[in-house]
Amino acid sequence: MANVELSTEEIRRYGRHLIMPEVGMEGQKKLKAASVLLIGAGGLGSPVGLYLAAAGIGRIGIVDFDVVDYSNLQRQIMHSTKDVGRPKLDSARERLEGINPFVKIETHELRLSSENALALFAEYDIVVDGTDNFPTRYLVNDACVLTGKPNVYGSIFRFEGQASVFATNDGPCYRCLYPEPPPPGLVPSCAEGGVLGILPGIVGTIQANETVKLIIGKGEPLIGRLLLFDALKMKFREMKLRKNPECPVCGSHRTITKLIDYEAFCGVQPGWDSYAREEQFEITVDQLKKRLDKKDDIFILDVREPQEYEICNLKGHLIPLRELPKRINELDTAKEIVVHCKVGGRSRTAVEFMKQAGFRKIKNLVGGIDEWAERIDPTMPRY
Amino acid sequence: MAIQIMIPTPLRQFTENRESVSVEGISVGEALKSLCTKYAPLKKHLYSDDGKLRNFVNVYVNDEDIRYMQKESTPLSEKDVLSIIPSIAGGTA
Predict the structure, then answer these.
(1) A235 and A347 housed in the same domain
(2) Least CB-CB distance to B89: which of A42, A132, A244?
């Protein structure tokens, strides 16, 4: 801490911290010397980022690859209406630097993966998990355990939230609590199940609070405790968490010593298709025709086989369904993607898979290219 | 003996939107079985096909994880509250 000093401006800014014995000059210098990595600049990442910037964390890294969507504004308070369409990292940086120019903001425009997580986490003291899907949650947890970084966890669903601090030296990790993820589709995502906009605000500020406590080393952190919050009943409950001696990543007989394939681990693979055919992930051939006529920027993904593509196509990018898991990096999550096959079954599986992989702006073409041939382009060969 | 089971939001669609259900049972296993008898569609979410409690379903008696008690044989007494704590992943979306 010795090599960190506060300027007179900073002293004025942090005055209300400095006069508290629990923070004081020493704690404020610890905050300035600290670095925190936020995974996700969305519902949870917003309040975490805003408060950590205001609190004077020295360096805040943010990982995200999404753009601000109009439907984000209901809860992602780091972004403004004028930011719709901009990368979330840009609006986050602008907002956080506006709050506190003494904080160094580092943006990482990437999809967190088994290839990049360890090197990235090594650069920071604490990781705050604000992701929205199981593969990334397990990835964040395992990477935290492997790099020895505390994982400040928060999760939300509709009116219900959870928070804890995982992966400290002696405390349990996320896998001690949930050794295995539920099968895909069993627990709906926020996009499917909805979420009260204020809920991530409450859970995210708890994460920010725990992060600050870990840094200044004061109070009782949420280690070994799972905090449950019900916004409808306005009730907090607390469950005891134990470090599982059999935990595959932090137990005494570890079987996971490096990062694995988290999509496969979470069962995210083509072949299941029974869940969630919500309208927001569907588009009809008439709607698509209109959008294309308007010259809207739509990326068409064709998940049929090459031989089918030869018969007829919509000039889409061809990735057969069976190859999608290993070729998903060819696709851009920020682009609006319409997925089609022959009649709509394989593409629905593909859409589900991509949703689990973090894609949000994707739609399944209902009825597939066959419907297109029937209703839009009678000259197109059908098979 | 009536035991209160707290139902988490994602599973309330199977319990007529009830946030807690009162069932009979003197052990965790019995209480959960009564719950699944009352609300049959819940069963496949809590138990695998071979009748084992699913690994991603955490069950607590008061604030204790039954994995560190006597699992499904954990005895229950009158004022105990049983909670099902599911994994939820939401955050950004």
Answers:
(1) no
(2) A132
